[in-house]
Amino acid sequence: DIKKLMTAEEYFAAGMDKLNDQEREALNQWLLRYTANEAPLMRKKSKAVKKVAADTTIKANILPPFKGWDGKTVFRLDNGQIWKQRNSGRRIYKGDDYRVEIKKNMLGFYQLKLLASGATVGVKRVK
To answer: Is 125 helix (H, G, I), strand (E, B) or coil?
Structure first.
């Protein structure tokens, strides 16, 4: 459902609230077909899509309990995403500020940055 994919601000800015149920369902079906068939090709071929993907920063909070990472840590975020640590390394964290940013580094791998400490760790998206 497209409403679950957008923030409330995005939903209203796109005029989605003006569509009737039938129009919204038609758009949902198109989005499913597009995601399954065209989106993978667009990610590979479109310079504009590649730029958006490279410039995207995910901002979220790690769901507690969180005490740092140990080489095999799974990070569950408040936006529903799940990431796992992709490289070794340990970091103990005793704070209660769980804000993070995730973005691609220059090699194309994702880095999670714990904003409270500035510490970073390589991650891979699971969900």
So the answer is: strand
Q: For residues 101 and 88, is the Cβ–Cβ distance under 8 A?
A: no
| Tokens 């800015």 belong to residue | 13
Q: Where are the domains of the chain?
A: 2-55, 58-125
33 near 25, Cβ under 8 Å?
Answer: no
Q: Give the Cβ contact number of residue 126 at 10 Å.
A: 11
Per-residue confidence (pLDDT) for residue 54, from 0 to 100: 67
pTM to 2 decimal places: 0.61
| 8 Å CB contact between 123 and 104 | no
Torsion on CA atoms 44, 49, 54, 55, rounded to nearest 10: 180
- Quick one: CA dihedral 118, 121, 125, 127, positive or negative? negative
* Tens digit of each residue's pLDDT (9 = 90 or more) over 13-36: 999 999 999 999 999 899 888 877
Residue 94 main-chain phi, psi, to 5 deg: -110, 5
pLDDT recorded at residue 20: 94
